[in-house]
Amino acid sequence: MPARSRIGRLAQEIKVFWFFSSEKNFFLSNLLFGRILMIKLFWAALILVCGAMPARAVGFATFSVPDPGNPPLLVGIWYPSDAPEKPVRISLDTAQVAPGGPVAAGMFKLIVMSHGQGGGFANQVDTAVALARAGFVVAAPTHTGDNLHDGSRLLKIWDRTRQLHVVTDWVLSTWDGHAHLDQAHIGVFGFSAGGFTALVAAGGVPDLGLIDRHCATYPTEFTCTLIAQANPAHAPLPKAPPGGFVHDKRIAAAVVVAPALGFTFGKSGLAGVRMPVQLWRAEQDTTLPQPFYAQAVDDDLPAKPDYRVVPHAQHLDFLSPCDAAKTRIAPQICSSLPGFSRAAFHAVFDRDVVRFFQANLK
């Protein structure tokens, strides 16, 4: 209800209260009236103030982050800004942002994002914008060796966690807005292979030796066909070197979306993930099917996560919604089941991810 309408209704309520206040219970009526009036005036003032506050603008920029001994990492950063916004094409999506705008005054929490296999930093652009508009800084790398243009490190999935740590350190120490960041408490968001990355960064320890056994039983599953394509000679899968899986004790909350390789953890492998977790699964996910991925993570986390199952959704429905241009360029990532609206779902998804981080990064 508009603020003016609420204030008008308040005036009517005051008149009614005054009319029915008899002389016999004058003292009691005035005491009650005073308390009601104070409460209602407080809420009326709050409504007016909040209604007058402009929506926070979102700045955006890309950076080349040094990764010693490796190619630099392309990183997109979204952040609160006071600069004017305009529509900007970011990879396949168009977002309303202030390109290169200055960082707004204040202190903000950092969220690091990890994309899925074969993706890129902008895969969840709508979620990144929603988080920045809510007062977070979001940093998302394109993972070297596992992106749209380069799959050379697909089988060395542990390197994703190292790359994420490199980006986190750089943003907290070198990015030109680092003085605005809480250095001690960060969040992590990951989708698909990025969900696996987020779990490991948050303290998970996978057993990659379980992949061979899983794929011997389910050879036609997406995970298994992908590995077979990357390893046509069927050589033994590479093993992570000592310290290859990098954990980050600064992570205080994690959003894990349709995680890959969920079956490789077990209860012992997830025992170190002790922060709040929001876990998402698409009900009709045939890419990472039940019960080996998100469900396995839900079963094995030491504390029950905030577990969300999205009715009628498929795996790729967690990617940002598609406009006409994106659908024309990449129709394979834009299709949804009949009756499912990715745009409507993402309005809820983005809202709930924001609320989760607001509640758990304090």
Return residue spans where pLDDT drops below 50 for at least 5 consecutive residues: 1-54
Content of β-strand? 15-25%
Strand segment count: 10
Overall CATH architecture of the largest domain: 3-Layer(aba) Sandwich
- The overall pLDDT, averaged over residues, is 88
Main sheet: which strands, in order across? 3-4-1-2-6-5-7-8-9-10
Most strands sheet: 10 strands, mixed
Radius of gyration: 24 Å
Helices and strands, in N-to-C order?
A: HHEEEEEHEHEHHHEHEHEHH
Give the CATH superfamily of the largest domain.
Alpha/Beta hydrolase fold, catalytic domain
The oligomerization state is: single chain
Return the structural class.
Answer: alpha/beta
Measured distance between first and last alpha carbons? 31 Å
Helix content: 25-40%
Silhouette: globular
Q: Any idea of the CATH topology of the largest domain?
A: Rossmann fold
Question: What is the name of the CATH class of the largest domain?
Answer: Alpha Beta
The count of domains is: 2
SS field, number of helical segments: 11
Q: Which terms would index this structure?
A:
Rossmann fold; 362 residues; 2 domains; alpha/beta; single chain; 10-stranded mixed beta sheet; disordered N terminus
